[in-house]
Amino acid sequence: MTKLLDKPLKAFTIYAFVILSLSIPAYYWVVETVWQKELDEHNLIIKERIVSQLQNLSLNPTQFDSVTHIWNVLQSGTRIFPVKKTATSTDSTYLVMRENKLKTHTEIDRFRGLASYVRFKGNTYRLWIETNVEEADEIVYIISVVSLFFFVLLALGFIFLNRTIAQKAWRPFEKTLGQLKSFDLSATETIDFEKTEIQEFEDLHNTLQKMLYAAISAYKQQKTFIENASHELQTPLAILRSKVDLFYQLPELNEAQLQVLEGIEKPLARVSRINKNLLLLAKIENHQFEKVEILDVGSMINDILELLQDYAESKNLTIQVQLEARPDIKGNKFLIETLLYNLLTNAIRYTSEEGEIVIFLDSQQLNVQNTGIISLNPAHIFRRFSVSSSEQVSSGLGLAIAKEICHRYNWKMVYVFDVNKHQFKVCF
């Protein structure tokens, strides 16, 4: 995954590389043009010096021809040949590729030349002046190397400046992100964000502050409502259950009346269970179970299985317990018992008759597996009142309580469905 700050750096680097690549032919054209212009001026200066010196020579035409012959042999950069008097006197420049006779090995070089006419003692002479031009491939190579060097320098500068500026400019964001990651809504404490000179971060902090205040306020109201409602329901529920028990003790009850009482008792038991679990959730969220001790999870699992033995035997379930290690867990005994009880009863409740349950425990995790056909929805399985079966006695809060207990101790709880088995894993 790419970081936000690296995206513009990548774009800037590609842009710099493209621009520097396009600059190579531009540099070559500029250097070539300037160089040829300088050579033309150089050749013109040589011509003017030759013409000036010819005027001071006291030679007759025959002697001059002898001297120019020797000159043409010794001085390959300039040549003078006699031509007809009617020849044009217009100067011209040219670029020619030919072998450089001054070098010991065969090599084709470029020459920038000036073709002109000079007059001496009434005769017209053709004057060629040629100067060696730097090779084009050498120019391109040098420019490419220099451009590559500056590109590397530019890229390293981009990286250094990007990191330096980013570390300073994004420090408030990193701190804000860390505060949000460690934020616990159940603590009902807002976050004091650091003041910053960056307008966007200030707007973000103000918006987050408003959202946190609203979330904390709603959470407090919800928690208060649940606590009050659960406490208020305890008394009428106890009265209703006692009244139902009194009806059961009446000797004149007939079969129809007993069925009505059973129809009342089942939803009443469900409501009572929901009320009890809601109170437990409220106490967990309020951190009312602060007593901590070292617990033997393996022994606790065996004790709970003994309590649930009749329930499992009524469905002809096979239970395998694999205790590869018996980790000592530090926590509240009531909460850990509740966690284990909810996981084991959930496995027994939702395993079809003659099914299989496997309980695996080691120093890293607890894995409770039970046979099944269809996978549950991982997005809803740990939500409150999310019931995965039509069984009426289920409150839909058992797994939500287990998840909350794991969250209380910073454990990870996940659900996996693999090879026709539901798996609930608690990673310590």
List its salient traits:
alpha+beta, single chain, 428 residues, four-stranded antiparallel sheet, 54% helix, 11 strands
In a nutshell, what does this entry contain?
This protein has 428 residues and is an alpha+beta fold.
Rg measurement, Å:
48 Å
State the end-to-end CA separation: 28 Å
Number of helices: 10
Described by the principal axes of the CA atoms, the overall outline is: rod-shaped
Major β-sheet annotation:
5 strands, mixed
| Helical residue percent band | 40-55%
Q: Could you say which structural class the secondary elements and strand pairing correspond to?
A: alpha+beta
* Strand order, largest beta sheet: 6-8-9-11-10
Order of helices and strands: HHEEEEHHHHEHHEEHEEHEE
Q: What is the tally of beta strands?
A: 11
Give the percentage of residues in beta strands: 15-25%
Mean pLDDT: 82
